User: What shape does this take?
Amino acid sequence: MAFLFFFTSVLLMIASPEPVSAYIGPGAGFAVAGSFLVMLTAIVSTIVALLTWPLRGLIHFIRFRKIYARSRFKKIVIVGFDGMDYSLTKKWMEEGKLPNFSRLKELGTFKPLQSTIPPISPVAWSAFQTGTNPGKTNIFDFLTRDRISYAIKLSSVDIKPPKPRIGFGKFIFPLGDSDIRLLRKSIPFWKIIGDKGFFSSIIRVPITFPPEKFNGVQLSGMCVPDLRGSQGTFSFFTTRAVTDADQTGGETYTVKKTGKLIHAELMGPPNPVLKEKKPMTCPFRVKIKNNREAELQLGRNRYHLQQGVYSKWITVKFRAFPGIWIAGICRFLPVSLEPDFDLYVTPIHLHPDKPAMPISHPPIYATYLSKRQGYYGTLGLAEDSWALNSKKISDAAFYEQCLQGDMEREKMLMDSIKNIHRGLCVCVFDGTDRVQHAFWREMDEQHPIHQGNYRKPEKPAIEAVYQHADAVLGRILQRCQNNNTLLFVISDHGFSGFRYGIDLNRWLEENGYLKLKNSNRGARNFGDVDWTTTKAYAVGLAGLFINLKGRESQGIVDPEREASVLRDEIAGKLIGLEDHIRKQRVVKQVYNAWQTYRGPYRIDAPDLIVGYQAGYRASWDTAVGRVTDRVFHDNIKAWSGDHCIDRSLVPGVLFCNRMISTEAPRLVDMAPTVLEAFGVQVPAHMDGRALTIERDRNQKLESSIP
Assistant: This one.
């Protein structure tokens, strides 16, 4: 089956009139030569695959015929709607607003699906794909700390520049590629079934960057960076005075209007071939036609812009060296044209045709998708919640981003379902998660963002995105009518309101576990903390670390004599933490990692994981290692919903087109369930258990679809 993707993609590339410009990835000069070699190798491999596929298909069938005979299904399709909440889904199904989800329930199963500890997307999706607990995946949060410097960093990927390098005047040329490492451990189940002959298509599953090799195709999801190496940095150009104090997630530039013209430039990544790492820029010009329309000029290309309307994905190029360019894609949104000029530009995504970092397996798969459906977003967190939080874009503009991403993925999934006749299709849609994060305030009249001015919307965005998911499911059901197809619809966790942030580091300070130098506060990455007297500190959205001697570079707590007592002491006090203004406890449960997790990476976990009550979450400052002057903070950002609380409060969903009799299914059970359904033995290292799926159905799927 793999040859079909390759063959089609090469034909599409050959037919494409657009020239492929030279570009540099993190591997600098080597990537220029390497890009041609990759393309040449892919074309040669495709031709060979095309000529030999009948023989290879026969050999493949003979080799794996016993496994195929044991398999209960020819195809398994798993659709993930990130963050889909069990209670909301049940409510709207009962109200008749989600007919396709109701139909799927009638065909088989609808149950709550237990998430992980903590119920945070990278933790949960890592458990989904490996069937193991965080002690074996090494993913405990979005963020973790560097043991040496205590600096906050991503938990799932590590990117290091290439070495060694050759200098020539002001230039420096790497001799190899960058070192990009996926920090998630354990083995995804599609690798296991791939070794047994099953082909898989894995689309935008979180924590799959950089992509791993296996028998199939993959487009990476969450944690794919933008072209600048960040998790998403937008640009905002305005003729107004810039007054923003907080530029988190984006950059605002003041521009001048000369007549009807605005000249500006997009900021790109640092030039990888210069010793002095100056950022590259891409100049552009906007010519205002009237208060509704304008023309964008990028190089020799011109594009029509309309106020309040996103442009299509547009290629932007940054010149690193004569003849060498780094390419990305972005979308332009004129917020206002006259009298004031306001222009929002999305983060610059890695170009799907010529990505500066690997985003797919095999590399040609990303190009195949773009030739099939046009350019698409590649950034892991493509929906720009920071632009919404800072009021650079409207609610409607953010919602459109969410729908755009889901529509792009639906095309990819439908292509996979059509082309894969025996094997696995997995696709994760992010819209449900991002919309709930941003619009929970619409359903919560007591949220602090309203400040007493709550107005209930005619149709909340969350209900709308659930109905959009229902429509997507309806089209998927049409493609999965064969009785040999097993369909799952799952989510990694549910959702709740996020009204108040808890500065856990301030709480630790007040209780004598964390000390500051000269009472200074406010620096990120624990810049003000005195590690010689600090016993504990909090990082990310759920974790609390003991400053352990022998583990942290400046650890002071003895791991044998003090650590266990200290963990119990802090956990006991946290359980009693009360919000005195609202007269309620804020922590439901505190988990000791040494008792909760099992596996070789448990030592890297936070010592304690805080399961907050609904309405509370770690504060924005806690996540990035900043200590403020108080414990409780009103959350007045548009990001008003969350799931970083106790997992008992935010179960996900499990749907299946077959009856599942297992009680209390868990997300970690999905991997062994797929293995058993394909007749593949479940490895002993997996912590999940295969769910019991009925062997016969009294009603065919076709008869339930109008």
